[in-house]
Structures are given as C-alpha cells and as structure tokens.
Design brief:
107 residues; GMP Synthetase, Chain A, domain 3; single chain; 5 helices
C-alpha cells in the first residue's frame, strides 16, 4: 500500500519571495516599498507636505503641496534617495521627481 505524500503548508512570507523571484518581480516589489514606506522614510514633517504616488522606471514620483517645499526637497534629494535605497536594500531607484500637487479646488 502506498503512502500519500504529506504536504507541509508554508507561510506566505516564506513562499512569496521565491515566487516573486521566479516571476522576475522581486526588484519591482522592493522599489514599491519606497512608495508604501514614504512617511516612515522621510519623517512626519516632510510627509505632511508630500505624497509618494508611484514609480516610473527608476524614478520615484512625489507630489508636493507648495513651491517652497519643492525647493527645499530639491536640496535634500540626494540624502532622501540614499536613505530610500538603503531602506529597500537596492540601488534600483536612481532619481526622485518632485512636482506640484494640484488642489481639487483648482482642477
């Protein structure tokens, strides 16, 4: 009599990285962590004036609420990018593009 092969269930956090690697999506997931963790990465004061909205190629796109903050962030760009790359453990992102956020009132 043959014994049935027993399957051991694995936790998603054990399986998902392997599946993403096989599908060639591991780097994309790492890059999008920069968007989801934006507030944590830049701190409360910057996060109050910005929203990371996505990634285009190797550039993270960030909406800013005022020209003054946009200027300030331009000076901090290299530091922010370095911090982001360290956080995601990858050099996949090479730039940050800041743009003025449109208010619903002016749209």
């Amino acid at each position: 009599m043959r014994r049935k092969k027993q399957r051991r269930f694995q936790a998603v956090n054990e399986t998902l990285p392997r599946v993403l690697r096989r599908l060639g999506m591991e780097d994309k997931v790492l890059v999008y962590r920069a968007v989801s963790d934006w507030k944590l990465l830049v701190g409360e004061s910057i996060a109050r004036h910005t929203v990371a909205i996505g990634v285009e190629g190797k550039t993270i796109l960030v909406a800013v609420d005022s020209p003054a903050w946009m200027t300030q962030l331009t000076f901090l760009k290299d530091q922010l990018l370095e911090k982001i790359c360290r956080h995601i453990g990858s050099q996949q992102l090479t730039d940050i593009r800041f743009f003025l956020k449109r208010n619903a009132d002016t749209a």
